[in-house]
């Protein structure tokens, strides 16, 4: 509509100019506060403001809000604008409502009533404004109140085409909020008939709506299939002039074509032969156009054209019933593999993965094996390399398994860390699935461990052991091969585990060779003992006792190891107990008992591959049943001790020990005292050994555990215990520190001083200089955040004890995140502010390997512990976390937004933090990043 002179709102233009001319943030805030005060006075003092003035001031409030300043007034004036008869005033009112008013606001009832009035006004332009507002806000209350209004407008015979477009998209938004607003049967037939509308804009909007409805109720909307095929046929056979208004860079109605093809993927192939033949012609027309030379060199033409092609190929894959079209689709995708556009190569590889699983097109996909291998080696983008690996895995069969596994092993040496774990699983699965000769399988897995030992999960080396135990023809070869692998100078711990188990069971099969005699095997394994973790040492100890049964001549040598101080006095209870029990068993038990207890591991029951289950779990497509079937027992159950050994230990050892008791070796306590008990009670109270000279201790930083909690023990020794209880509210906080004297002596000259940066102000009153034995004293510290600080305050504690002077320094758990408060906002507000915070100093981002299990519930708890809200339903990807908060400091409030994007397949995170004040995001990032 043409604007009058009064609609230019010169005052708004002047205000925006003033803001842009501000030289500093302080000047900008000052000008904003002045304007807010003026607007507030106008709204309160002048009760006769005309519509133009209200519109102008509401526009100013909108602009101020876009600058990141919270607006807490002006809502009623904006609602009043909705009743105006002028389009521009009503437009500004709806804009304010859409941006600033939350669906739970008190004025929402008035807003809904105004929307109803406009929807029933009969004025298309007012109806469109109301529909746009409903689509933007989309509250459950709107869905309930307008459940009949919007469908009526959508299917009304006298409704303008543009209004029907808006109504379709508005109804789609409300349906996503509440599926109950559109029960099947009431509006079904009339909505489906929209696919036959003359206006392609209406058809496009209706197609999006019907696609969503059909996904929830496919049977009720299956009548859309013949209409979608008919519409698609008219588009596919149309010339440039037929759809000139809806042709995009020489491609007729590409976005509608994509929507129609996607809608058809909701249903199986049509039963009607005529419809099926017509659809076949449509797909053929799309594939034929793909082979035509491009009509334009612009990227928009190729993007639109390829969008339709890929969606048609997806429909071909979905139907999986036409061998000729499947092969044609594969050949078309093969041409994209050599494209210069990264996105095309990625999509082609992804689609070919689906084609490789079909019997019709598997051989056609295999023809591109060399191209895919070359892409794996030369592709720059890691996501494309990931898809190349997926495709190699999908196209692998008995004819090319050895070649593909070899190529994947070679690439694994230089592969990105984010994809190594998945590659290891796929190589292990292919080696087992297509192993004709199991010696090749053993060689492959051992080579896999040697190349990527850190990324070889337990399931992989469990599986090679299970197969070796179950196949007599490979046991000797496995023992020989693993013995040779253990001789490498740099031998991974997973190789030690496999070697220990296999040699413990089948080492006798290679002991006849002087190069791998019994003594050589034992010395080779024991040379790795001190470089291994506790779990691996436990496996080695079991192997040693197995060797006593296999090679009786090693009994004395092995018993010497078992009774050594390093084993008997081992700090790990599990290892200590194993050594004692194994030593007692070998001393007392007869050879018949040892043969029974230490007999060869029985064959494992046949089961589905646990490696495949793990890979499917990573892809999030496995059912709970398959997970249960594929589960492998833990190392205690499968690897460390077999069932016979466990039963024997529990049944035989108590009787043996009762007949021939042995005094356990003394175990060192923390204070150096000896104890006759096998296990040390680390929680037992003991009189501390008090130092006689002055000392200064920099205590180990234990404050990080308070990042997400406010109470607990900060430090504890045999002398003092320091507890913390804190409470924070916006920019201030109170920290209560409790000092406890655990000794029977008085602590004199007891002082506590806090040091902190200039960005954190503290008030720390002195405490009593005498801390009596067994007493506790409290010190309360007041805190205020001046600015964004990084360093935590330091607590310096000093006291005299038993004639010696002691000093202790430790970090107090006061972090910048303690002054954060969560904020709730909708998707529009979040992404609008997110885009505004795009300065280099306002953002901190990094992609990193997950340091903890990627549990969604635990991640949500951590985010809330840092003072952020967890905003549900904001990000299209439900796995992502969207969060918002406000940092309160004396220098002003800082809006903080966070996105945490987990990649479950690669066990990686992308963490992005944006803040309205420079450098704040970097400080928050350093605090939050280590905890994911």
Automatic annotation (TrEMBL):
Residues 704-813 form the Clathrin adaptor alpha/beta/gamma-adaptin appendage Ig-like subdomain domain. One of its GO terms (molecular function) is clathrin adaptor activity. Signal peptide: none annotated. Pfam families: Adaptin_N, Alpha_adaptin_C, Alpha_adaptinC2. GO terms for biological process: clathrin-dependent endocytosis; intracellular protein transport. One of its GO terms (cellular component) is AP-2 adaptor complex. A 1,2-diacyl-sn-glycero-3-phospho-(1D-myo-inositol-3,4,5-trisphosphate) binds at residues 10-11, 42, 52, 56-60. The keyword Transport applies. It comes from the Eukaryota. It is found in: Membrane, Coated pit. It is a peripheral membrane protein. InterPro entries: Adaptor_Complx_Large_Subunit, AP2_complex_asu, ARM-like, ARM-type_fold, Clathrin/coatomer_adapt-like_N, Clathrin_a-adaptin_app_sub_C, Clathrin_a/b/g-adaptin_app_Ig, Clathrin_app_Ig-like_sf. Keywords: Coated pit, Endocytosis, Membrane, Protein transport, Transport. Its main location: membrane. Adaptins are components of the adaptor complexes which link clathrin to receptors in coated vesicles. Clathrin-associated protein complexes are believed to interact with the cytoplasmic tails of membrane proteins, leading to their selection and concentration. Belongs to the adaptor complexes large subunit family. This is AP-2 complex subunit alpha. It comes from Trichoplax adhaerens.
